[in-house]
Amino acid sequence: MVRFILRRLLQVIPVFIGTTLLVYYMVFALPGDPIAALFGDRQPPQAVIDTLRSQYHLDEPFFVQYGLFLKNLFTFNLGNDFTGQPIAASLARVFPVTAMLAVEALAIQAIFGVAFGVFAGLRRGGWFDSTVLVASLVVIAVPTFVLGFVFQLVFGVQLGWAKPTVGANADWGSLLLPAVVLGLVSFAYVLRLTRASVSENMNADYVRTATAKGLSRPRVVLAHILRNSLIPVVTYLGANLGGLMGGAIVTEGIFNVPGVGNKLYQAVLRTEGPTIVSIVSVLVLVFVVSNLLVDLLYAWLDPRIRYDQ
Amino acid sequence: MRFTRTSKALGIVAIAALALTGCGAGGGTTEGSGDATGDPNKVITAYSNEPQNPLLPANTNEVYGGRVVELLFEGLRTYDADGKPVNALAESIDSSDAQNWTIKVKQGQKFTNGEAITAKTFVDSWNFAANSKNLQNNGFFFESIAGYEEVSAVNSEKTADGKTTTTPAPTAETMSGLTATDDSTITVKLNQPEADWSLRLGYSAFFPLPSAALADPKTFGENPVGNGPYKFEKEGAWVHDQSISLVKNADYSGPRESKNGGVTFKFYTDPGPAYTDLQSDNLDITDVLPSNALKTYETDFQDRNATKAVATNSTLNIPPYNPNFQGEAGKLRREALSYAINREEIAKVVFNGTRTPAKAFVPPVIDGFKEGLKGSEILKFDAAKAKDLWEQANKIQPYDDSKPLQIASNTDGGNKEWIDAVANGFKNNLGIQAEIQPFAKFAEVLNLRKSQQLPGLTRAGWQGDYPSLYNFLGPVWGTNASSNYEKYTNPEFDKLLKEGLAATSTEDANAKFNQAQEVLFEDLPGLPLWDQARPIVWSNNVVKAETGWNGSILYYNITAK
């Protein structure tokens, strides 16, 4: 078990170097002088531009720039972004907000998705099942930004049940509306996965055995059907966490959430290599850790799975 | 049948979600006592975004930092809503020859930390801003003062690979032309007479700074202490990427006294969510509307919007290095292009009235603006004349149509629509191929403009720093001027500008500047397109709001209920 975890963590190194190198190069290759872009039509004295350029090593060749970035990273000093703010501090500001948003969205899709899915799967073909199937299809078919604008308009502006945007001081309450929007599409997938898995496992031998043993219905459903049905769902949710953290650009934009997505968007607009790659590095870690957790959960869900072989 | 079931099920999901939302998002604003004069203690929330630099006046040259700096500080002068300069900290500003100036500073003025503001404060602040080693973005605003050369000197070095790097190398710490003769008197000697020099004194580069700012500008810029109508709510009132909270400065006594209790700037990366927030009264005022709201804002915010002409204009620049536009034929072609643009219609249809067709190289809101300058008839749409001129030019020198005529622009910010309209005008009226040359980012266009690699037309815009004709001409069209990227040059134009600056009365100066514009109309290095009008909208919490001469909201004048 420990060896398995260690091996997985060692795999992070090549993944990490590969992604950061690639992303850094893509930012490097973007056309346009990022320092000139900071100022627009009103350019400052040349000395200001040149000083900034050498301060951010933009006058160095690509590998020197990348090397300096790695050096900074391993000395835990991410440097400053183009506005002179320390990157580490802005990461520390945006990641908790997006983590809250992602966890909230994940909780919504896990709790409601699994519950609805079990319910639908147990009574396959019933009215609830067919309603939920069509509804989830609709949700999957509608793009996130449409859902976002509709929810914002209906619940934020017209009904006034929630604040239409998040802004400063994000908390669990103010993040709920964007979390619902963010989680809704995956909720539909989780629901469908659970439903399929549950209805398949309902006819399994061990379920018949459990029922024959005289176990209560809730125990059969929860301990036998559900637990065995969760493996695909957990795989999906684990992979989804990373996506929720990094892929919330649209949702964060619509609801003005001061999180990773917004920061990343602005950094891309400003061609801020170090900020972009720092964010990506953290996202890589999130992906790796969440996938590792998923793998470890397998053993708990299905004791037949062993790691050290 | 299926569909009713579906919507019912969707309803269940939505209600489940909302039951949770409802309990989370309560609270919010407390109601103020609403009457016509407004509640003087109410704090306004306003649209903004993260400032790009620490908040130092002489270092702030972008709008989001600029609007905060202008509220935190007060200079010798300030501009009223129409752009007329009025004395603020200055008791009097006098000069008999437009070269030697004597400024009397009001006594007893203080920064909010208690530090007194004297003539020396200004002298120190200006020397700091002009010094090249302090790397202030607006340092060049002091270029007229004698001794600026030494203080702002730089070292240019060629590196091995042929690139030039510029490093600061000041040879003096103070400008020789700037002295504080006593606590209340500043004397300024300029390099040459400049009639409109005193107009600049309201610009943020000239604001006074407390001594803490000069000692450690970066730390100061995070928690600036000023003397303006507002101050930071507390240490750390700037929450990066989120907001800046200002409260009324009770000790302020100047022309811009605040009619509300404070302003909280909320940061938005996109104007869309801000518009939604305004519709639900979660934000009080914005001066940036999403482009899709330009057609609806007047109905969405009935009686809660205002649109005013501002000192910002747009031109379409024609690079002198494009062979098609050189010589006698080139001149005719430039005129033909201008006649082929239907400014009136584009302003109405594409911009929905937020632009007015240009009448000169300077917008009408600037003092000294004159309509009907010689040569300005080319700003009128005239398809027949355009075609005629184009054909005349072809007789002199055939048009090289191997490549379509491209109009370079970044395509964000709603630029594509009007460029398409202009290009279609060229196609239909001149019979040439014309199209947009799209760029994802403004910086790409700027780089190509700087390195003279953009043979097509380029969109250019200018927002006035201070309300003066010169500000729209010198920095943009002067030989080697900072924003003259296409490197237009005409000695006669430069001479007229210089004479205008040297004139001892504003009327004489403006007459020269208008003559200089006639040179531009003769040469047409760029085609004036339109002047901007800035729409603003406000929430139900606001009684009245307006914008100033440059399109910034006059936050101190907002009354709230």
Description:
- The complex is a heterodimer of chains A (309) and B (561).
- By secondary structure, chain A is mostly helical.
- Chain A is built from 13 helices and no strands.
- Chain A has helices at residues 2-29, 34-39, 46-55, 62-74, 87-122, 127-141, 144-158, 176-201, 205-212, 217-246, 249-254, 260-269, 273-301.
- In chain A, helix 5 packs parallel to helix 8 (176-201), helix 6 (127-141) packs across helix 8 (176-201) and helix 8 (176-201) packs across helix 10 (217-246).
- The longest helix of chain A is centred in the middle third of the chain and has 36 residues, at 87-122.
- Chain A is flat.
- The N and C termini of chain A lie close together (10 Å).
- With 561 residues, chain B is α+β, with helices and mostly antiparallel strands.
- Helices cover 30% and strands 21% of the residues of chain B.
- Chain B contains 16 helices and 22 strands.
- In chain B, strands 14, 15, 16, 17, 18, 19 and 20 form a seven-stranded mixed beta sheet that branches. In chain B, strands 1, 10, 11, 12 and 13 form a five-stranded mixed beta sheet that branches.
- Chain B starts with a helix and ends with a strand.
- Classes of the chains: A mainly alpha (309), B alpha+beta (561).
SSE layout:
The complex is a heterodimer of chains A (309) and B (561).
Chain A: H1 2-29, H2 34-39, H3 46-55, H4 62-74, H5 87-122, H6 127-141, H7 144-158, H8 176-201, H9 205-212, H10 217-246, H11 249-254, H12 260-269, H13 273-301
Helix pairs in contact in A: 1-13, 5-6, 5-8, 5-10, 6-8, 7-8, 8-10, 9-10, 10-13, 12-13
Chain B: H1 2-24, E1 43-48, H2 63-72, E2 77-79, E3 85-87, E4 90-95, E5 100-105, H3 119-130, H4 148-151, E6 154-158, E7 164-168, E8 178-182, E9 185-189, H5 211-215, H6 217-222, E10 230-232, E11 238-239, E12 243-248, E13 262-267, H7 271-279, E14 285-286, H8 297-300, E15 305-317, H9 327-339, H10 343-349, E16 355-357, H11 383-396, E17 405-410, H12 415-430, E18 434-439, H13 442-450, E19 457-463, H14 469-477, H15 491-502, H16 506-523, E20 526-538, E21 542-544, E22 559-560
Parallel strand pairs in B: 1-13, 17-18, 17-19
Antiparallel strand pairs in B: 2-3, 4-5, 5-9, 6-7, 8-9, 10-12, 11-12, 12-13, 14-20, 15-19, 15-20, 16-20, 21-22
Helix pairs in contact in B: 9-11, 14-16, 15-16
